[in-house]
Amino acid sequence: MRVAWRLGSTMVLLLWVGAFGAGCVGGRLGRPSEREILKRILGSSVQIVLERNGDRFRTGSGVIIGVRPDGASTDCLVLTSAHTFHAVGPASETYVLLDRHQGPGRRGRARVLAVREADEVDLALLEAPVPGCGATALGRPPALGDRIWIVGFPWGRQLRLIGGIVSQIALDDHGRREAGSTLMVDASVAYGMSGGGVFDALSGRLVGVVQGYGTARVPLGEKPALQYIDVPVPGETYVTSLETIERFLRDAGHPDLAAAS
Questions:
Q1: What are the residue ranges spanned by the domains of the chain?
Q2: What's the whole-number mean pLDDT along residues 26-54?
Q3: CA–CA separation, 140 vs 242, rounded Å?
Q4: Rg (CA), the chain
Q5: What is the CATH number of domain 35-128?
Q6: To the nearest whole number, what is the mean pLDDT of the chain?
Q7: Res 24: pLDDT
Q8: CATH number of 147-258
Q9: Alpha helices (H) along the chain
Q10: What secondary structure letter does DSSP report for 140?
Q11: pTM to 2 decimal places
Q12: Nearest-angstrom CA–CA distance, 212 and 45
C-alpha cells in the first residue's frame, strides 16, 4: 500500500507539472514573437514622396492605419505629418511607397483626405489605391519607460528601424497624464522621418507618430562668413500622442479608424 501510494502521488505530481508546463508553453505560443511583430510593423510603414513635373522635391514617412475595399481593388489609408504638405501647390503629385523593407517597394498615387497643421496637431490622412496593403491597429497610450519601435526614411533614403523607450510624458499638477500632450522618446530621428509610426514593441500596435525633434544651432565656418546650421539633438524626439491621432481621425470623418481594435 505504501508503495502504491507513492506511485500514485508521483503520477499526480507529474500530471500537474505537465499541465502547468503545457499552459506556459501555450501562453508563449499565443504571444507573437518579435520577428512577427516587426514583420507587421514594417509591412504597414510607407514612404511619402512628393513630386513636381516628375521630379522629387520632398519626402516623408507614414503608416497604414486602415484598408477600405474599393470594388475589385483596395484603398490604403495612410497617416502622416501635415507639415510634409506645407505650401505644396496643386501641380504637385503625392505617392506612397509600400514594402520598402524588401527593396524599392510598390508605388501608388495618393490623394490627401484631411490635413491639419496647428500648434496642437500636425497630421494628414492620405488615400492610395494600392493592392495588398496591411494596416496596423491603434494601441493604448504608452507608459513611461515602455519600449517602442520607430520606422521612417531619413533624408528620403533607406528605411530605418530604431528602438527606444518612452522617456517623457507630460503630467498635470495632480500627477495625471495631460490628455493629448506630446510624448518624448529617446530614439533619435532625422529629416524625412516625420510622420513615421511609433509602435509598442510588445504588441506592434501604433501608439504615436513622429512629430519632430529637438535641434541645436551649431556654428559653421569663421567670421565674417560664419553660418549656423540646426542639427538634431540625440534622444529628443517628439511624438504626436494617440489621443491627438484619435481626435484628428474623428474630426476628419473617420471615427472607425479611431477605434482601437
A1: 35-128, 147-258
A2: 86
A3: 7
A4: 23
A5: 2.40.10.10
A6: 85
A7: 44
A8: 2.40.10.10
A9: 2-30, 34-44, 242-251, 255-258
A10: -
A11: 0.82
A12: 17
